[in-house]
Amino acid sequence: MSVQRATLTHSTNSTSVADLLERVLDKGIVIAGDIRIKLVDIELLTIQLRLVICSVDKAREMGIDWWSDNAMFKGLSSQASAASLPDAAATPGIEDRLARLESILVKQAAAAEAVI
Predict the structure, then answer these.
(1) Bridge-partner residues for 68, per DSSP?
(2) For 59-74, how does the pLDDT look when each residue is reduced to its tens digit (9 = 90+)?
(3) pLDDT, tens digit, for every residue of 16-47?
(4) Which of 1, 18, 51, 52 registers the highest number of CB atoms within 10 A of its CB?
(5) 28 touches 60 (CB < 8 A)
(6) Is there a contact between 28 and 54 (Cβ–Cβ < 8 Å)?
(7) Helices (H), the chain
């Protein structure tokens, strides 16, 4: 009678979460899906979902760099964003139009108070 012993084998190639995250960011993952809702062959709603998960460097390699022109990601404050708007004084006619609109609003408010 021979005795066989079950031997346990342990994997030496364990993957940690950090390794997995590094691989995902290095290679990238694309998740895509479409949701269509139809009623009697009439399409009511279509939602197309596209999700790309990767590192910034990988995204730039793929030609995705929408954040480079976004003021929020450039670190500009709202004051800096407002400063980038055209100056109202430099725009001819804006001050006159604003004054006319304000006078119309004052007249309408006075007329409304007279009715009450």
Answers:
(1) none
(2) 888 888 888 888 877 7
(3) 888 888 888 888 888 999 999 999 989 999 99
(4) 52
(5) no
(6) yes
(7) 17-27, 56-61, 71-74, 78-83, 94-115
Residue partners of 75: CB distance under 8 A and separation at least 6: none
- Residue matched to tokens 């009678």: 1
- Token look-up 């004054």 returns 99
Q: Can you tell me which residue has the tokens 């030609």?
A: 63
Q: Smallest Cα–Cα separation from 57: which of 17, 20, 29, 27? A: 27
Distances in whole angstroms, Cα of residue 62 to Cα of each of 3, 12, 28, 52, 94: 59, 35, 10, 11, 44
Global confidence as pTM: 0.43
Which residue did the predictor score with more confidence, 87 or 47? 47
Give the span between the Cα atoms of 62 and 25, in whole angstroms: 13
To which residue do tokens 């409304």 refer?
112
The residue-averaged pLDDT of 78-104 equals 72
